[in-house]
Amino acid sequence: MFTLSIRLPQEPYTTQIMASSQEQVQDIRASLIEFPYTFQYTCFHLEYKEERINDYVELSEVPGIGPDSELTLVEDPYTEKDARLHFIRIRELIGASGDRTDTIYGIQAGVSLHDSVALSDATQAIANYDFEGPGSVRTLLAPSEDSSPKTLKSISLSPWNPPPYNLRSKGHLLYLQLTTNEGEQYQITSHVSGFYVNKCTNSKFDPSPRQAPKAFSSHSLLNLISSLSPSFEASFSALQELGSKKDALATFQLTHSIPASPWIVPPPSAANMNHQSDIARSQESFLISGAESADTLRDWNEELQSTRELPKELVQDRVFRERLTAKLYAEYNEAATRGAVLVARGEVPPLNPTEGRDAQIFVYNNVFYSFGADGVGTFGPEGGDEAARVATGKDVVGVKAVNQLDIQGLFTPGTVIADYLGKRIVAQSIVPGIFKQREPGENQIDYGGAEGRDVIADNETFVPVFEQLSKHMRVKKHPVWDKQGKRHVLEGSIETKGLLGTDGRKYALDLYRITPLDVSWLEQYWSEPPKEGEGESKDKDKDYPHRMAVLRPELVEAYGRVKLRKFLNSELSKRPSEAGEGEKQGEEEMNGESASQAKPESESDEAGRKADETTPPKTVDIGGFQFALNPDVFCGHEPQTDEEKEEWSKDEEEVRAACKYLSSEVIPRFIQDLREGDIGFPLDGQSLSNLLHKRGINIRYLGVITTQVDTKEPRLQPLRRLAIQEMISRGFKHVANRYLRHLPHVFATSCVAHLLNCLLGAALNPKPTAETDASLKDLYSDTDFSFEKATPASLREELAGQVRIRFRYDLGEDWIQPIQQLPLLREVSLRLGLQLEAKDYVFSKEISGSGSDTASVSSDTTPVPTTVNGQANGTSKKNKKKKNRSPNRVSSPAAASPATFRPDDVLNIVPVVKESSPRSMLAEEALEAGRISIAQDQKDLGQELLLESLSLHEQVYGVLHPEVARVYSQLAQLYYNLEEKNAAVELAHKATIVCERTLGVDHHETLLSFLNLGLFEHAIGNTKLALSYVRHALDLWKLLYGPKHPDSVTTINNAAVMLQSLKLYKESRIWFEACLTISEEVSGRQSIGTATLLFQLSQALVLDHDWHAAVNRMREAYNIFNNTLGASHANTKEAETWLTQLTQNAVNEAKRLQAQKDLLTRKGTGRGKIPLTNKVGLGAARPQPPVGQTPAQMAGREAEPKMDTRSIEELLRYIEGDSGKKPTTPKKRPANPKRRAQKA
């Protein structure tokens, strides 16, 4: 990094910027337009020594440039596109752009609550926190802000646009009109040379410049406005000052990812949600894409594939290639999603209007669209529409995997799936030649199944690239047979197709079955659908909806590692001297299996790709090890010869063994790891799904997992509850999609509100009625309004049926009673893309009649305040928080027309998107190398590599991207472990904001970011700020899961220790009590974790001068340690020492406390604090481990919980603050210089 000077054409005439030799010149340009003194420049180039610099070269390629070099900013003449973009930029800069209605971003997309949380005062709220109270949707709302200063009354395009032919040839580009705050109206000409005030009026056209003294002109529109309006400078400065109070990351525009749309948003009546008059809003389409829309018509496929063909030999080449790839995929994903929304709403005409609705195809903006349904009967034997929907989802996963492998010469179409209004729309870039009519006798496909299994193509030119693909995917080269019985040898699944495009590229299509079928599941729960005319339904025990049940790639990799271990043990067993070593190594690897599967996704994929390269003991050659599975077994193929039948039988046995490994090894080990608390517990349905997928477990096994969980085992009850909630939310999604699929979008909100009332509002109104506009129904006479007939009973029956056939789990009769409404409402909203109005939804008559503001209380338990010695720990502060929140509309009516949800409560529906963009391998390699170096105690090299990885992530993805948020979070934890706490705090702040904006304000990774940010802030002394973050995280926790999550023990314990450091001993004691209560529920009264918390609580009681309770708690801790660990264990001995000393000194200490109290009255508080240590297992403040990851993995070392080694006398001295005198003796002691300095 070095400093560059930039010479400017206007004040301040020079500025400086930090740059890296690896940065491109366009990065310098992008930075300049964000600086306060240079953001008026948008149309310019940079020169060095009077030579123009290409925007797309790196600084290192510019001859002579280095530290303290001076570049010159030279203003360029405008083109019409430059003028349009400059106008958009200035409108946004001066706050004149107003609100927008976007088709895919939704309301408050990309919002961040980080700054508002930091401004809140959490000390009082922490002291009176309600641990068992329900969550509140208002946690997800930013407090209302003061209105922004108005810089202009209006600015827009003039009605005189576009310029006539004769003036266009003289350099006229656009005509603008603006009205200043003083009420003066000006007409402005945008010229190639800049902007000037012209002589036009509303009725007279004369775009020539005004004469002096009213002649105003400037190259920048911002400078021109400043010269026209006397009040502009002051209001613009006030606007900038308001923006500077926010973190820069909270205001940057997202360019490389679609911003997260929250499921709870302010009502339309809120101050920051008012829809304002702005004529330029309707002009933005022209401003962005021009009159001919030429700027938006792009050949997406050619751009994507050309990028893959860029060179990648040098590091600079890889950076440029990956950066361009990330940018292109982000732009394509956005364009494809916008088109998918229009297709779903019926705004795009089909190419084949005579076909059925599900068979129709569309082309919009050079993207090909189709529905994720079996419109032409391709998937009839596999399950019809259900199979087609699943296949499209798995195809995206397959395309993403192939893109990640980056095989030379193999290409995939850009693929995006958007679930919107009950429809699944598949968007693909148009592969050249895919619609080409082949000659008679030629297949439409060049490799794989051309017409199912009947016709098979095997173009030899595809063998090399498919061979590489199969090697990485663990796919075995195998024969298949067509309907004539002819044998064809394929490198991949018969369903994976190869197409030779007219551009000469080899494309891989239909990647939805790159792994074998889960034959164990299908044989148990699937049967062929009855043929037409037979009229028989499926057997109830074998009615799984489709045959697309395949094994996950993660499971295939895990099973491959098991096979490798067996191979190593087999090889070593042949050598007697090394047999013991081989068994030991295999045992160690088996023990590490769960840890390896619990790695973050990037690490898991990396480990999977390098499984072949795993290096066993030096004396073993693994060249002979081979492992691959045949994905086409159990698919109806019939081998012809005995040799083929024997080989096919072996392939079937191998697949069966992999399926057995899933059910007998992976799933029980997953449950065992959660039972023992070895990994972070899932926080919500999404984190549970991610954790299952990383372990190689399909979501369809949720019912199996729930059944295997012992209902009497307290530690696993949260898993059971989360799994049932996830099955219900997924089942409801399928039910809602059935009603929404062919429903006009104007009735979508009515349908959703009615279905939510049937699911969650039946306790308030057991017979809800759908609210639909009768006048609109007459316009759609052929529409199926069957959703109106749904009742709570029918919906629950249908929902229970969906859970039974999809997850093989029986919910029982009264399954609705134990669920928590808010977490389930959140899950359902996220799955359907709902944006609901933020208000207190009434779920039952009891809550409605009580008049309580917090109407969203869960129905399973009545909230009971945590008590300490018989006294309540305080009430919640919801009424106080309401004063700082956005105003709400009328809450759900309870008396006049009882209904929990109304159509007006569903403010918007956004698409739920799945895409196939690859990750940056270069950045991940640098990150992994940095981790390894630090683990090997090469800290300097490790930190250098980590910073290099961070720089690469930011260069490739931009700053606002989920992958960048994850690397920020990982680096923050690494720096924290390296005692670089200030750097950890800075990175943790960035991670939190980027998580909020790209993943969601209540995403489980956002919650973990807030928890770790709180811990890091406390580590540098900002304890009050840390408590604000912790409180916000706990509020989020209630929305995601509800109270008493197993991992919240760590968080509440950390907060209790933080309160101790603030000398809030009574409040700290309350939090330790709450922590103990949760531990007893989720881990059991006699667990080691509970004993450790009892030990810590006893210390807190000593600080609070409750000696009697301290003795009782220490006695309980001692008994548990003694019974569980034995009398000789260090923890037991330490607890015994504390218990003995506490008991012996109880009476004497009571007298000392009285003397101490008198002393405190004279001197002020002199009590000390218990410092944060890592000695007490559960009580030590430490970063919250990610879901599915152990604390040791997160820290990069083994965690060894130890008991606190302080004696009772040491703690008592600490309580007294090591002050100059003991209160019980007049003998003088040397004064403490540290305390003397504190007094001074």
TrEMBL record:
For region Disordered, the annotated ranges are 573-623, 848-899, 1164-1240
Write out the annotated subcellular location.
Cytoplasm
Which residue windows does the record flag with biased composition (Low complexity)? 848-867
Q: Name one GO molecular function term.
A: mRNA binding
- SUPFAM superfamilies in the record: Hypothetical protein c14orf129, hspc210, TPR-like
Q: Which UniProt keywords apply?
A: Cytoplasm, RNA-binding, TPR repeat
| Domain Clu per the UniProt entry, residue ranges | 278-522
Keyword presence, RNA-binding = yes
Q: Which GO terms describe its cellular component?
A: cytoplasm
Q: Does the record's keyword annotation contain RNA-binding? A: yes
**Biased composition, class Basic and acidic residues, residue ranges:** 573-587, 600-615, 1197-1221
**Entry's Gene Ontology BP terms:** intracellular distribution of mitochondria; mitochondrion organization
Composition bias type Basic residues, residue spans: 877-886, 1224-1240
Q: Fill in the subunit field for this protein.
A: May associate with the eukaryotic translation initiation factor 3 (eIF-3) complex.
The text of the family note is: Belongs to the CLU family.
User: What does this gene product do?
Assistant: mRNA-binding protein involved in proper cytoplasmic distribution of mitochondria.
Protein name as catalogued: Clustered mitochondria protein homolog
- Origin species, per record, is Patellaria atrata CBS 101060
